Amino acid sequence: MRVIGLFALALVFALGLSGGAEASCLRKGGDKGALKEAELRPETNDSVTLLYWLEGVSVCMIRVPIPDGYEMIDTSISGQPVWGIVKQIDRSVFQYTKNPGHMGMDHFAVKVCAKKRFSTSGCTHIQYNMNSIKGKQGQVG
Question: Which 3 state secondary structure label does DSSP give 32?
Answer without folding.
Answer: coil
